[in-house]
Design goal:
The protein folds into two domains: about 220 residues, MFS general substrate transporter like domains (Growth Hormone, Chain: A, Up-down Bundle); about 200 residues, MFS general substrate transporter like domains (Growth Hormone, Chain: A), CATH 1.20.1250. Helices cover about 75% and strands about 0% of the residues. The chain is globular.
Length: about 425
């Protein structure tokens, strides 16, 4: 199983209202570049987060790999979550996106080279924080491209092009990273760095831009007040709670996927844990992508969202018991298929559900940005929680607690009243 998002949730940026949107030919150039650039970003996040970083942490200190990975991942998630809005602010104030995409991509290559050379847990933590900083410069500017340059009537297509890059980048990134372990991790970092740098160069060469109007920053006090006002809406609050719990359970398990395959799952003779990860990745990506399409279409035809959200969230929780009952390769494959299908359906339908319970029609971007806390917050908590659980009650305990969390998340849709 792979997580859809190892980096922080990108901020939702309002339509600038007056930004220059491209014509037909420019859109034809932009659309495929959205897929390529986002796929490259997830190649880095997933290839490192699922494969290279756990291997590097294990090489530094095998006896304490679980606790150290929790520490490195947790600290870097906090750093990335704080840096993301700062990177977006810098991009907004300049009125340009391409220079930040290019600069972030090229700087990420340098940061990845330094991370690959780290030999202590402290240096690995600092290096991964540096990579997260550069990747957030790239990501924040890239996220703003759609509202900046795509007309409203084409944003559904643009969002789809962005979304396609997630499973493709995740699967390819994990498979590529697995080629360089355990003996050549540093080269793996350089290869992924070259991918993100090349993507940044390609995007800025193919997609031209005009400077957009400068956006004023929202004071922190107003942001906090907006957060409190938005959560006064009962339906939105329940959606927020459900998303938070779902992501917390999901990330608690996905973070330790490689270690689970090393220490918990009985693999067939001749299949290494890194080869197993590379084998699982495209299966998970394919199931997630298929269920995303089917779930979205099915919920539209049914005219109902809550049952599909609740059932898919519950299925993720139930699937987490499979590696507990059957801790072998067959069990892991069953778990991957079930979890991929359930998570893909959940993300498609829950996103539609969110749009139907937003508290304010005038502040949809603000409200969606607040919901992103439910995506990013669990990424901070999950590494520490997972390390604590594995250290105290083992991997079976980790699966059981993660399953319980997601099942409670499934129940969170029941009190929602505005949507069927």
């Amino acid at each position: 199983m792979t997580a859809p998002e190892i980096g922080p949730a990108a901020p939702v940026i309002p339509d600038p209202g007056g930004a220059t949107t491209p014509g037909g030919r420019a859109l034809l150039r932009l659309m495929p570049m959205l897929t390529v650039s986002n796929a490259a970003m997830y190649m880095v996040y997933m290839g490192i987060g699922v494969v290279l970083l756990p291997i590097q942490v294990e090489l530094v200190d095998p006896a304490n790999k679980v606790a150290n990975l929790g520490l490195v991942s947790g600290v870097s998630a906090i750093f990335a979550t704080l840096f993301n809005p700062l990177a977006g602010l810098l991009s907004d104030r300049s009125g340009r996106r391409n220079p930040w995409i290019l600069g972030g991509g090229l700087a990420a290559l340098g940061a990845l080279a330094l991370l690959g050379a780290a030999k202590t847990v402290l240096l690995v933590t600092i290096g991964w924080c540096g990579v997260q900083a550069m990747m957030n410069i790239y990501q924040a500017a890239l996220t703003a491209v759609v509202p900046d340059r795509v007309p409203v009537e084409r944003r559904g297509l643009a969002s789809a092009m962005v979304g396609i890059g997630t499973p493709i980048g995740s699967a390819v990134g994990i498979s590529v990273a697995a080629l360089f372990v355990p003996d050549d991790v540093s080269t793996g970092y350089l290869v992924l760095g070259a991918v993100i740098a090349g993507s940044a160069v390609l995007f800025t060469a193919v997609v031209r831009e005009k400077k957009v109007p400068r956006r004023d920053a929202v004071p922190l006090g107003k942001q906090l007040a907006a957060f409190a006002d938005t959560l006064k809406s009962a339906d939105f609050r329940w959606v927020f709670i459900g998303r938070f719990l779902m992501m917390l359970g999901f990330f608690s398990v996905s973070l330790f996927q490689l270690y689970i395959l090393q220490d918990h799952i009985a693999l067939p003779e001749g299949l290494s844990p890194t080869e197993a990860v590379a084998f699982i990745a495209p299966i998970d990506a394919g199931c997630t992508l298929l269920a995303t399409v089917i779930g979205g279409v099915l919920s539209d035809r049914m005219g109902r969202r809550k049952p599909l959200v609740g059932l898919s969230c519950a299925l993720v929780g139930i699937a987490m018991f499979v590696p507990v009952v059957k801790p072998d390769w067959t069990g892991m494959l069953i778990f991957t298929v079930l979890c991929g299908l359930a998570f893909g359906c959940y993300m498609a339908v829950d996103t539609a559900l969110v749009t139907l319970v937003l508290p304010s029609a005038e502040d949809t971007a603000r409200d969606m940005g607040i919901l992103n806390i439910a995506n990013a917050g669990p990424q901070i908590i999950a590494p520490f929680l997972a390390a604590l659980l594995v250290g105290s009650i083992g991997y079976n305990g980790l699966y059981a607690v993660a399953a319980l969390i997601t099942l409670v998340g499934a129940a969170a849709v029941i009190p929602i009243k505005q949507v069927r």
